[in-house]
Specification:
The complex is a heterodimer of chains A (about 325) and B (about 220). Chain A has 6 helices and 21 strands. Chain A has about 325 residues and is of the alpha+beta class. Chain A folds into 2 domains: about 160 residues, no CATH class; about 130 residues, Cyclophilin-like (Cyclophilin, Beta Barrel), CATH 2.40.100. Chain A has a 7-stranded antiparallel beta sheet, with no helix packed on it. Chain A has a 7-stranded mixed beta barrel with strand order 13-20-17-18-15-14-21. A 5-stranded antiparallel beta sheet of chain A has the order 2-3-10-5-8, with helices on one face. In chain A, strand 6 and strand 7 form a beta hairpin. Chain A is globular, with a radius of gyration of 20 Å. Chain B has 2 domains: about 80 residues, Gyrase A, domain 2 (2-Layer Sandwich); about 140 residues, Cyclophilin-like (Cyclophilin, Beta Barrel). Chain B has 5 helices and 13 strands. In chain B, strand 1 and strand 2 form a beta hairpin. Chain B is elongated. The model of chain B has no long low-confidence stretch (mean pLDDT about 95). The chains are: A alpha+beta (about 325), B alpha+beta (about 220).
Chain lengths: ~325, ~220
């Protein structure tokens, strides 16, 4: 059985797939890749199912050795990857020979890079998913981030790899954005017209205090008009909560499942993967849209992602 | 029944406006139907005190259609029965070592620490729902004599097993997480274990009572 050896784990590298939705009644958030679109494309490039498990690297990549070789693909942020010293591109498959070393440095643009390997990473599934849930210490590799010396087992490659890469048009349409589109949140009416205008007009900065649970933003304070404390209720992925002090928090994939802060807005489906590519200190904005537009964009994006003939050249 | 889109792919369904056992029963009944006969478009359900949130596959359905389906489910939910609640006892050591906020809680109510313990362990609480983190059950209602506000500044890390109170609620932290509730004790039991069936010690609808144990009993139970 082939394997992958972690020589240096980078800043925070975890095993992720597309998550485990459906366990809300147990208080379990779906987790999964913070940028699921990048992971899906990386998987398709190496002939895997889009749901196969890969590595999610955060801000700094790390280095990995393939003792018996492997077919690999990287997607997401550019971390200046090299394979045995030769620079390699994102969004394309490569053959790593026996003993080859993949090295990734600090990110040059976005937050996360995904490594897919033909056959996928083999770990015991927890509730149907290989995703690492760091808070609960479940899923992935022993429920934790990867460390130096970890050896991951790889599955058997499913099919022969065609030489192809993700088309430029597709990359442009799925490109990370700093203007996130939102629909009104369930408590939007608890904010004055002025506060809501401030929310979409002004710029917010992603703080260092951001992770897979959520992005804490620094920017104009948004005041709620309601002083009564809310009854705790479910919160959705991409919800933008406003804390009592007026700070905005965007909920990420490892989110808490319920909360008691009012939500002014929610990031739309097609921009959820883009939250996963926002790194600390970047400035972002919000742009309001309708549920109907959001849904049409989602259907279009899913159609594209499920149509290999359009994805690759 | 009041509907409110939470996002372009999720819908909140409010079944009441305040925390009550009657609203809780409606939440549990609707959850039961959704779990027994999950529609093909349903991706996830998250219950809470007064509402449920449904995440759906937006390629198959939109908010108006979700609402129509749920109105049908509601009629059927009214005639379904909820199972007899399970009764669960949780041993808690209220020793000062595990209860950094116990004295403050006592003082703010003009009580002695042992009175707070007696009141906290005096009744069965309903597990309204699990949320926040895996296995975290929102239990209520606390006796008025010990209900009070959460901490002004949340702790960055609360030890796993901590027994805490906030408002009229009480809970046990299954994992070491940040938390703003006041800590009054600790249980040696594990609230959530991936290798156990069911994984969560407390499920939605259960009746839960805490019983005080000594520091020595805590240590004995903790090693088991």
């Amino acid at each position: 059985m082939s394997s992958l050896v972690v020589k240096l784990p980078g800043l925070l590298t975890t095993i992720q797939d597309l998550g485990r939705p459906g366990f809300g009644p147990m208080g379990i958030s779906p987790a999964g890749a913070a940028d699921p679109v990048a992971l899906r494309l990386a998987n398709l490039l190496v002939g895997n199912e889009p749901t196969a498990a890969g590595l999610e690297m955060t801000l700094v990549g790390g280095s990995y050795v393939f003792p018996t070789g492997a077919v690999i693909a990287l997607a997401g942020a550019n971390m200046g990857a090299t394979l045995d010293g030769h620079p390699i591109d994102l969004w394309a498959p490569y053959s790593a020979t026996s003993g080859a070393e993949l090295v990734l440095g600090p990110t040059r643009n976005y937050a996360r890079t995904y490594l897919a390997i033909a056959g996928g990473v083999e770990v015991p599934r927890f509730l149907g998913s290989a995703s690492t849930h760091l808070l609960a210490g479940i899923g992935g590799y022993q429920g934790r981030a990867l460390r130096k010396g970890d050896v991951l087992q790889l599955g058997a490659p499913k099919r022969k790899i065609l030489k192809h890469r993700v088309s430029q048009t597709v990359l442009v349409s799925l490109k990370p954005r700093r203007v996130l589109r939102v629909t009104d949140g369930p408590q939007a009416d608890q904010f004055s017209a002025e506060a809501r205008e401030t929310f979409t007009r002004q710029t917010f900065r992603v703080t260092e205090d951001s992770d897979r649970l959520g992005l804490r933003l620094q920017g104009p304070l948004i005041a709620s008009t309601s002083s009564a404390s809310m009854i705790t209720e479910p919160v959705s992925l991409g919800a933008i909560q406003i804390t009592p002090s007026g700070q905005a928090i965007i909920l990420g994939v490892d989110q808490q499942t319920t909360g008691g802060y009012p939500k002014i807005a929610n990031v739309i489906g097609v921009d959820l993967h883009r939250i996963g590519q926002l790194r600390p200190r970047v400035d972002i904005r919000f742009e309001r849209t309708s549920l109907a537009v959001a849904r049409a964009l989602w259907i279009e994006q899913e159609r594209l992602l499920n149509n290999p003939s359009q994805l690759f050249v | 029944m009041r509907f409110c889109p939470a996002s372009d792919q999720s819908m909140l369904i409010y079944l009441g406006d305040r925390i009550s056992l009657a609203t809780h029963e409606r939440v549990v009944k609707l959850l039961q139907i959704l779990q027994k006969e999950p529609p093909a478009w349903l991706r996830n359900v998250q219950p809470a005190y007064c509402c449920l949130m449904l995440a759906f596959d937006a390629r198959r359905i939109d908010h108006a259609e979700v609402e129509a389906v749920l109105r049908q489910f509601e009629q059927r939910a009214e005639s379904t029965r909820t199972p007899q609640p399970r009764k669960i006892e949780i041993p808690v050591c209220y020793d000062p070592e595990f209860a950094p906020d116990l004295e403050d809680v006592a003082r703010s109510h003009g009580l002695k620490a042992k009175d707070v313990v007696r009141l906290h362990a005096s009744r069965f609480y309903r597990a309204y729902f699990l949320g926040f983190a895996p296995g975290f059950a929102y239990l209520g209602d606390l006796p008025d004599g010990i209900a009070g506000p959460r901490l002004d500044v949340p702790r960055k890390s609360v030890p796993a097993g901590s027994v805490a109170i906030a408002g009229k609620q009480t809970a046990v932290y299954p994992f070491s997480t940040p938390g703003g509730w006041r800590l009054i004790g600790r249980t040696p039991l594990t609230l959530f274990r991936a290798d156990r069936k069911p994984m969560e010690l407390i499920s939605i609808g259960d009746q839960v009572r805490f019983h005080p144990i000594s520091r020595k009993e805590y240590s004995e139970l903790a090693v088991q």
